Amino acid sequence: MVLPIAELLLAAGLILVPALVFFFRLKHAAHGSGHVLIHTGQFRTLVPFEGSFSFAFFRATAAAAKSIIVLNINTPASFVELIVSLLRPPFSGTWYSTSSWYPGWLGLGPGRSLTYPIYALPAWFYVGRGIDALLARRRVGTGNMVLSVVLAGVAIAICCGLRFGLSPWEHQDQVGPYIEGFALWACLFAIPLVAWFRQRLRERLPENLPT
Q1: Which pLDDT band holds residue 171 (cuts at 50, 70, 90)?
Q2: Which of 165, 145, 169 is nearest to 156 (CA)?
Q3: In sequence order, what are the residues at sequence separation of 6 or more whose Cβ sits closer than 8 angstroms to the Cβ of residue 198?
Q4: Which of 58, 133, 143, 146 has the fewest Cβ atoms within 10 angstroms?
Q5: Rounded distance, CA 134 to CA 195, Å?
Q6: Between 121-134 and 108-119, two packed helices, what is the crossing angle to 10 degrees?
Q7: Phi–psi pair at 209, nearest 5 degrees
Q8: Sequence spans of domains, the chain
Q9: How far apart are alpha carbons 71 and 175 in whole angstroms?
Q10: How far apart are CA 36 and CA 47, in angstroms?
Q11: How far is Cα 26 from Cα 63, in angstroms, rounded to an integer?
C-alpha cells in the first residue's frame, strides 16, 4: 500500500504543487485585472485570468512530461492507456481527449503525465505485494510466481525490441524513456519471483540441517 501512495504523492509533487505555485504567481501578477501578461524569452502571452489555472496546470503537466520521470516510473500505464482507448467510446467536443481520460487541450505528453500515475496503480500494488513477500510478510503462490515471470519477460522483450529492433531515426521519436521504463519494470516485476525462490529456500533449509 505504501508504494502506490508514494507514487501518487510523487506525481502530485511534480504536477499539482508547481501548478498551484504558478497560479498564485499569476494571481499576484494580475493585480486584480482581467488578464496576465507572461514573458517567455522573446515571446509574450496574454492569459485571461479566468483561464490562468488551466494555463498553470498545463505548464506543470508539460514540465512533468518533459522531465520523463512520470513516464519512466509508470511505463505499465501504456498498456492500460491502450485498453482505455480501445474500450472507451469517443466523445464529441474538445474537452476530453478521444483516447484518454484527460482534457483534450492538455495534449498527449502533458495528458499522460496526469493519467499515467493513475493507470499504473495496479502495477504498483503488485510490486508492493512482491516486496511484502520478499520481506516474508506474505507467501508467494505458484500462480503469482508464473505471473511474475510472464510480466518480467514481456517487459524485457519490449525493452529489447525497442532498443535493438528500431532504426536510429525511430529512436529519435521519444523511445528512450520507454526503453528505460521497461528495463526498470522488468526488475520490479521480477521481485515476486525472487521472493518465491527465497520462500522455497527458507522452506527447505530446515530439512537440510542436522538433527
Answers
A1: low
A2: 165
A3: 134, 136
A4: 143
A5: 4
A6: 40
A7: -80, 140
A8: 2-119, 121-208
A9: 11
A10: 5
A11: 17
Cβ partners under 8 Å of residue 27, min gap 6: 49, 52
The one-letter amino acid at 183: A
By mean pLDDT, which of 10-14, 58-62, 135-139, 159-163 is the weakest? Answer: 58-62
Q: How high is the pLDDT of residue 47?
A: 66
The answer to whether the Cα torsion of 103, 108, 110, 111 is positive or negative is: positive
Residue whose C-alpha cell is 469517443: 90
Q: Quick check: 9 and 2 in contact, CB under 8 A? A: no
Q: What does the alpha-carbon distance between residue 71 and residue 85 come to, in Å, rounded to a whole number?
A: 18
Length in residues, the chain: 211
Q: Which helix (H) or strand (E) segment is 193 a member of? A: helix 191-208
Query: Which cell goes with 65?
Result: 512530461
Residue 65: pLDDT over 70: no
Q: Maximum Cα–Cα distance for the chain, whole Å?
A: 85
